[in-house]
Amino acid sequence: MARTKGDHEARRRDVSEAVWQVMATRGFSGLTLRAVADQLRATTGLLTHYFPNKRALVTYALDLLEERTASRPRRPAGEGIEALRAALLDMLPLTEETTSTNRIWVSSWDQALSDPDLTDAYARKYAQSRATLRDRVAAAQELGDLPPGDPEHIAAGVQSFVLGLVVQALFAPSAFTPSRQIELLEEHLAAIAVPRPLEDPH
Amino acid sequence: MARTKGDHEARRRDVSEAVWQVMATRGFSGLTLRAVADQLRATTGLLTHYFPNKRALVTYALDLLEERTASRPRRPAGEGIEALRAALLDMLPLTEETTSTNRIWVSSWDQALSDPDLTDAYARKYAQSRATLRDRVAAAQELGDLPPGDPEHIAAGVQSFVLGLVVQALFAPSAFTPSRQIELLEEHLAAIAVPRPLEDPH
């Protein structure tokens, strides 16, 4: 029986899912053709049709991570500080799905830092994310939800806070439950929402 | 000529330095017996005397990271919020040495998240670091440098902020220069130092 386009697509989806599962449980250091083959209950021979080598597998995995992150469901943005809060909540590992995605991102940093092109690509990605946050900070300032101050700076601050919280929650999910993560984020937003007193000249 | 204890110690130091250099430039994903041997201009055969397998090399590397972190020079603590600031500045990649250490820590997260025992060990390590920060937060509250509030919570917040800033600075050192990192940290400390207004009941 001839193989149809549908078969081919279904097989590609299976391969993607297997790559994802391996990354979510073993990280990039555990991402091998053998591990993906085992997850698929297939032979490594079959996989070399998709990935001629380890590098092709890693590139595919990074693209898959990007694609799933871009297409994840997002909270409705709302206005002012609500829109900023929504963007930050979307980044936290509050569900099984977002925990997997974050775990894979963190695990990819080792690879990303050891390859100059990837380091640049990651730096651009984070700069892009910071630009989105900056726009939301500026909109919140317009509405008076946030005090004046360089929105680029404030965005860099909240991005740092959330990234670090992601890392802590991945290592200690019982200490950083979803409700505690949200509480910590709320306190951070409350802190930056308070107008800073004028500098004491002394 | 018989080899002396001094030779042996000197060789151990060379091996440690080679392992460190490989981790700092290639991360844990690039840490192989071959890479360490190349760095040492030695044979992998010689290295198997020190590391019978990859796992032994990784364990050694993690111990070395821990040891170098524990023995790093630290800023004098000072009192109140100064002591908190000093602890946080000690964590940032502000010099070549602390950039390497941080880069190796971040790179080790992939390994650490894929091994449950290591995940627990890392969670304990971060909890320990949080406990130190909590004590400094509490001391700063005693002196009136920080407003009241759960010191454990405030410590978790500053730890998240600094960890995320470390990651950003590693990916984009030109955007997150040492002076910008310090500026962002100062703004964060200023934000948490401001007393929060009473909750609006509405």
TrEMBL record, chains A, B:
From which lineage does this chain's organism come? Bacteria, Bacillati, Actinomycetota, Actinomycetes, Kitasatosporales
Species annotation: Streptomyces spinosisporus
Query: A Pfam family this protein belongs to?
Result: TetR_C_6
Transmembrane feature ranges: none
The cross-references to SUPFAM superfamilies, in alphabetical order and at most eight, read:
Homeodomain-like, Tetracyclin repressor-like, C-terminal domain
According to the entry, every stretch annotated as the HTH tetR-type domain falls at 9-69
Which InterPro entries does the annotation name? BetI_C, DNA-bd_HTH_TetR-type_CS, Homeodomain-like_sf, HTH-type_TetR-like_transc_reg, HTH_TetR, Tet_transcr_reg_TetR-rel_C_sf
Which parts of this chain does the entry mark as a DNA-binding region? Answer: 32-51
Query: What does the UniProt keyword field contain?
Result: DNA-binding, Repressor, Transcription, Transcription regulation
Keyword Transcription tagged? yes
Could you identify this protein by its name? TetR family transcriptional regulator
